[in-house]
Amino acid sequence: MTYKNLINGKWLDPLSNKYTENRNPADSGDLIGLFPASAKEDVDEAVKSARKAYEKWRLVPAPRRGDVLKLVSDKLTRRKDELAFEMTREMGKVIAETKGDVQEGIDTAYYAASEGRRLFGYNAPSELPNKMNLSFRVPVGVGGFITPWNFPMAIPTWKLFPALVCGNTCVFKPAELTPKTAHTLVEIIDESLHEVLGSAYIAGVINLVHGSGSVVGEAIINHPEIDLISFTGSTNVGKRINEVAGASLKRVSLEMGGKNAQIVMNDANQELALDAVLWGAFGTTGQRCTATSRLILHEKIHDEFLAKLIERAKKLKLGYGNDKGVDVGPCVSEGQRKTVDEYVKIGLKEDKAKLVLGGEIAQEGSLTKGWFYKPTIFSGVTRNMRIAREEIFGPVLSVLKARSLEEAIDILNDTKYGLSSSIFTQDVNSAFTAVRDIKAGITYINGATIGAEAHMPFGGVKETGNGHREGGWTVYDFYTEWKAVYVDYSGKLQRAQIDNY
Ligand code: NAP
Ligand code: MG
Q1: Residue 432: is it exposed, middle or buried by C-beta count within 10 angstroms (0-12/13-18/19+)?
Q2: Residue-range domain boundaries for the chain
Q3: Ligand 1: nearest atom to the Cα of 220
Q4: Tens of pLDDT, residues 397-415
Q5: From ligand 1's centre to the CA of 237, what distance in Å?
Q6: What CATH class is the domain 5-18+30-256+465-485?
Q7: Rounded to the nearest 5°, which phi and psi values hold at 256?
Q8: Which bound ligand lies closest to the C-alpha atom of 463?
Q9: Angle at the Cα of 314 (from 338 to 351), degrees rounded to 5?
């Protein structure tokens, strides 16, 4: 099956007429489809159509725009199982997780649909008589959306749905590794636009341009007619986007890497902490921005907890995520697995670090068909080692030891990233100290580092983000500009700060 781009309301072949293959990471013999390897010229067409559509879409009442999102959420709900199956086939995580990924999109759509009836502004009294001060949210314009492959549904929806309900139009470039999920999502949005608007359908509200970051991504971030960029991906690419887009003063939201840690104190509920670290470190094969990549154990429980962890992790079953009983899927690509293996080699060279589980490519039976890597644990890791500092994005957990709460928090904070964090303790004083002192956008008390809810602010500090948040009410600040309005009904020229003081 050969897929197309959506530009100006039409499904079109790329102008280059070039395509790239998309294959199942659990079975490289399973070809999913051919997707456009688009060029800059396709982006130009998409931006032109989004620019034209913007002048109409911004005038559609926001509750009506919300009706489109309501229909999108209904359709996603109806197709949840089928979508999840295809997402697992496309990027590898197990079906329970891809169902969660779709559900996050559904939740985000219902939230956005209802926000069409809020989008509240503030009113304030005027300092002058017979004068009224109001403020409104207005759309920003044309947005460029660039997303990664690890949450192929949730992440695009976090961006596109609030952007659309606020009245912006979109040019969307998904990760080359997950184009099919993006295709289906955009198809659903476009169908919903048709069904809600009928003969008043506006072509170009949503445009989909498949292709690589170096060609399509670059064309988007350099395009003078794009007003905002929302990006999720690695910190290196995020920095590049900030530089390029900064030169033309685009509004930019960046959600980037993480090196998240879970602390387990000596008073923790250990069974709970074990469940959490297994889920946090090896769920999505460790390929989450919020994955637990470091485990910081209090010295008093270190040996006991580590032994139990190894026992539990040994039992995790690798396989195709659509098969029953599978706990961990493959790495998303051969390249990603190679990166993981390289980091394991780096870890093995460290004198004090000890490989206590995994550390190799999985070669058993049908696992040779995909990019599988065994769940891997290093103990004896110290904070200056590269495996304690750099984002690996795979099923590799580094275990560190701490003598006190203060030291544990200090180790947790000793990273250039600041996305998610977690502490297991039964002591209320330790918990609140951690909430206050951990430098991260998200902190869980007695929960894994993963599990964000769609209506809460999502994002990180330091090199994880640039100050914006997705999710909940916070994202609406990114997709709107404020317009202040002064209405003077005094019948004379009243000069603020001059006539009244
Ligand atoms: P990536 O390589 O940075 O790619 C992300 C997206 O940017 C892809 O669509 C990619 O295109 C595109 N891109 C690459 N170079 C570009 C350029 N020069 N200009 C414009 N776009 C460009 O990240 P990834 O490897 O896909 O995803 C893993 C990373 O994402 C990890 O660092 C992870 O922590 C981060 N992440 C962060 C969050 C968060 O919310 N903080 C969530 C999920 C993932 P192609 O790859 O198709 O070429
Ligand atoms: Mg990439």
Answers
A1: exposed
A2: 5-18+30-256+465-485, 260-445
A3: 20
A4: 999 999 999 999 999 999 9
A5: 7
A6: alpha beta
A7: -125, -150
A8: 1
A9: 60
